[in-house]
Every structure is written in structure tokens, then in C-alpha cells.
Amino acid sequence: MPPNPASVDAPVSVLDNLRWQQLESRLPGASFVYGVTTTGVVCSPGCPSRLPRRENVRFYEDIRGALQAGFRPCKRCRPLDKVGTDLGELLARVCRNLEGYVVSGADAAIADVASDADMAEATLLRHFRSVTGLTPTEYLAAIRQCRLYPALAKQGSVLQAATEAGYGSASHFYQDAPRLTGMPPAKHRKGGKGEQLTFALASTELGELAVAASSQGVCWIALGEDPGVLLDEFQDHFRHATLLPPNDAFNQQIAAVCQLVQHPEQPVTLPLDIRGTVFQRQVWQALQAIPVGMTLDYQQLAERIGRPTAARAVARACASNVLAVAVPCHRIIRRDGGLSGYRWGVERKAWLLAREKAASEGN
Predict the structure, then answer these.
(1) Is the pLDDT of residue 356 over 70?
(2) 323-354 b/e with 16+ CB inside 10 Å = b?
(3) pLDDT tens sequence across 148-179
(4) Helix 121-132 crosses helix 136-154 at what angle (to 10 degrees)?
(5) Is 43 labeled as catalytic in the residue annotation?
(6) Where would I find the beta strands (DSSP E) of 63-126?
(7) What is the pLDDT of residue 213?
(8) Which domains does the chain have, with CATH numbers?
């Protein structure tokens, strides 16, 4: 079995225990929010709703983190109101409208959402992103992702799961599924059945680290703040895999991954079990060929693989990467030089790039 997250990082566990005590006490002034995995709702401490079970609670520093994880604002305690009464109420209504699109499986037109809010589209985008850290389109994707994992686990077919998760068409689902699950949807529905994997958690300068390996090599590297969330994400992907106890070889792989995270400028020497389509593998190989200290945009990467018109497909392949740092998708930035999104947090991306730049300039 994987190690108990509480034994991996005592400071985080202690903090969450304190937050749980505050939650049990119904203290309204506590400076955090919590998501309930069984309902998909994010609440403020002091919410009048029934206290959830401890194992179903995920704590977040602010509303942004919870929304980015796919939780939707509670209609009772209205956590968005903390950003200002008028704006909070307006954005809460926008979130509910977007959730309605997901539930119905209809395509969401952002122009219609803005019109319903009596707001110009550009104004809606600016306010929505300033509060949630997401665009409305990204929020829709997060909600679908939150619904997708349990749907894949219980439905008899992939398409039934896609419909329940809120995808209006099969093509949209198959386009998104590898990015969200790290594997083709049919394989995700099997939950890694027949796989034998070794898994462990560790602490690094960049936060908590989750690593899994098959007999072929490391197949999963993820970064985050909460070891419990990392463990849940791994188990969602490989719920039927047989977990093997760590051995000396795996412990060496863990040490190598930790060293790589601390020093991303160093060459990758550990064996990798890279899983993906032919196109994804082509993109990931091109990422691995980017020299330390260099960055590219999606168009430049598309040109490097001989597919100059496939910049969007290249972006999706980068987002599908499940081997943080080892496959350096953090070296892809926007054309204007700004940092684009990063699966494991833009702050971590900035740290990695700064570390690599310093190393390349020092040589």
C-alpha cells in the first residue's frame, strides 16, 4: 500500500488538523476554504451545511485553489461573496450558469454567459479570472474533470461516462480525456487493471512529490501542496493497479526524481515509462530536446516537429504530460514571453525556469 500521507509531511498534516478543528468549531473567521469531494462543493468555514466526513474534505488557502480543482461555490455559505458583495454575487451566478451548461451537456457560449450577467464579454473575462484564476472555459473544463473520474469508474461505457460528466459530444471528450487523465479514456476506465506499480510520496523544495513506476520505469511524477490530494489523483488514475512495496531500485528512482526536481538543469538519467499516442510522444521527445535555459512557444515547438499548423494540438500534448520536470513542458511559454498555464502551478514553473536560467548563465 502507498505510505500514509500524514507520515510524509507532518507540517501539512498538522495544519490540516488545525483547520479541521476550526471547521468542527464552525468558526466563520477562519482564513481558508474547504472542498467536499462527495458533493463537489467548496464552502467557507461556518457554512450551515452538515459537517462532512473528515476523509472527504480538502483544504485550500483561498477560493482560487478550490475552483481550479473543480469544486463549485456553495449556494448556502456563498464563499465568493468574500471578494465583494456585488461582484461575488455576480460571479456566483456566472458559475451556476456555467455548471448548468455542464449538467445539460450543452455547449457554453461565453458571449451568452456574459449577456446573462449584463456584462461585456471582455469585462466578464477580466473579473472572472481576477477572482478565480481561471477563464470561464477553463472553469467548465475543471467542472467536467471533477465529474469525469467518478463517472468513468461507475459507468458501463466510456461514452456513457462522457455524457454524465457533461460532454456534449464524443469528439470533445476524446480530445480532452488524455489531458485530464494521462491515458486514453478506455484504459482509464479500467483503472490500470493488470498494472503492477510502485508508488511513494516525498517532500521537496517545490512542495510534495508523487512518483510511481512500472517495470519499465517511472510513469508518474506529480507536484502539489497536499500529499492527500496527490495520492487521491494517483488512485483515481490507477485504482485497479496492483501496488508493490518499494524496493531498493525504486528508492533509487525516488532519490533521482527528488534530485531532478531540485536541480532541473541536470540531465535526466532515470528510466521513464512514457505513455501516449504517437503524436504525444513526438511532442514530448521534442520537449526533452530543448536545451536547459531555452524556452519555446507552442508554435515554435510545432515547427520543430514538422507540424507548423498544429500549435493547438501541440499545446494539448504538453498539457497531457504526467512526468513533471522529466518531460520539461515547463520550458514552453507564451509567444509574448509570459508564463502560460502549468499543470503543477505557474509558481513552480517560474521557479524551474529561474533555476535553469541561472545554471545556464553560470556555465
Answers:
(1) yes
(2) bbbbbbbbbbbeeeeeebbbbbbeebbebbbe
(3) 656 665 655 666 766 676 666 555 565 565 44
(4) 60
(5) yes
(6) 72-73
(7) 93
(8) 5-138 (3.40.10.10), 196-262 (3.30.160.70), 278-362 (1.10.10.10)
Helices (H), 108-169: 110-116, 121-132, 136-154, 158-165
Q: Which of 43, 95, 146, 318 is catalytic?
A: 43
Q: Which amino acid would we find at residue 25?
A: S
Mean pLDDT (the chain, rounded): 79
CA atoms within 13 A on the CB side of 300: 14
Task: Look up residue 41 and give its amino acid.
Answer: V
Phi/psi of residue 224, nearest 5 degrees: -175, -175
Give me the catalytic one of 47, 74, 318, 329: 329
Which amino acid, residue 320?
S
Instruction: Report the SS3 class of residue 271.
Output: coil
Cell of 246: 518499494
| Active-site residue, 258 included | no
Handedness of CA 56, 59, 65, 71 (dihedral sign): positive
Supply the Cα-derived Rg of the chain in whole angstroms. Answer: 21
**How many of the other CB atoms lie within 10 Å of CB of 55?**
9
Q: How far apart are CA 82 and CA 128, in angstroms?
A: 14
Q: How would residue 9 be classed by pLDDT, with cut points 50, 70 and 90?
A: very low
The identity of residue 197, as a single letter, is L
* Widest Cα–Cα separation across the chain: 61
pLDDT reported for residue 317:
87
pLDDT at 15: 63
Q: Which three cell numbers stand for residue 338?
A: 509570459
